[in-house]
């Protein structure tokens, strides 16, 4: 049975976030303050106007143009103290939004302009996240965070970044990712990095199937051995909806071999509805494939991608799905548990969060 959703209570629902970019989630006021200190010119100096500028500019229908907005966030994340600050604020903002576990990603190679080393960048972000976690717990919003270290797919440093991730695995780094423009930069360009990580038994997620289709997803899964897919929304290209309901009570559909593999292997999809609408990967929230993929029982997770560029939060993404795609509280609980099952922390710790935090939290709201 599905429970009606009290929208006002969604901010209290426990949330799990696997796909959130540190350089896509800054507070507009922080961007303004640091930019003024370092003399970086912004398209707007008032925080409200700047927030609107990011959202408007990211509403471009193209991943490449969407990514251009990061020039301003990356610019203010070069000094050690600024990385600490941005990471601390990210942990605090997510905790205040009800997120109980978050994997936060960024590309260390983009934060070297003020002279930091790659290791110093990872240490600064780790320090900020730890501070944020501590403060959040003291204010009654416990959150656990982990870092995902990203290599940029157009660059040629992925092997070095993979080694960086491995060096810091006891120090808050839980996995590795590649990001950036997808068309023309297949994941297999970075095979050396993935081979290294598999040798070291490290977790890997790959942005694939966002701006480019099935060949990118196939390479990510079958050539590069991705544990999860960043977006993966274009797996839809391998699914034919037949109309009506099948013998299991699901939408009747024919899955191609790749879609079948992704579902059978329970490969998690890190879906980001608002971001996909902005980059043109989906036409609207109500038409976003997340609903169909949920009904077909793919391992669906719900994510923000870039809170600043999308003007969003986990509560907002949940609210949109409830309002525009008819999601129930049980659906939200399901994606939350899916996300924890797919997290890159040890199994026992995932289970402890599912049983000790997520299930009781949803029970309090009337689900499960
Ligand atoms: O949705 C995305 N797809 C591909 N790359 C992305 C996306 N969101 C952010 N990025 C890029 C821009 C950032 O500078 C970089 C590291 O977080 O990752
Ligand atoms: Zn992303």
From TrEMBL:
Name of the featured protein: Adenosine deaminase
Main function: Catalyzes the hydrolytic deamination of adenosine and 2-deoxyadenosine.
Adenosine deaminase domain span: 14-359
Textual note on the cofactor: Binds 1 zinc ion per subunit.
Binding sites annotated in the UniProt record for substrate: 21, 23, 180
Entry EC no(s): 3.5.4.4
Annotated site, Important for catalytic activity, chain positions: 231
Catalytic machinery residues: 210
CC cofactor: Zn(2+)
Pfam families: A_deaminase
Keywords of the record: Hydrolase, Metal-binding, Nucleotide metabolism, Zinc
Name of the gene: add
Protein residues bound to Zn(2+): 19, 21, 207, 305
UniProt source species: Kineosporia corallincola
Record-level Gene Ontology MF annotations: hydrolase activity
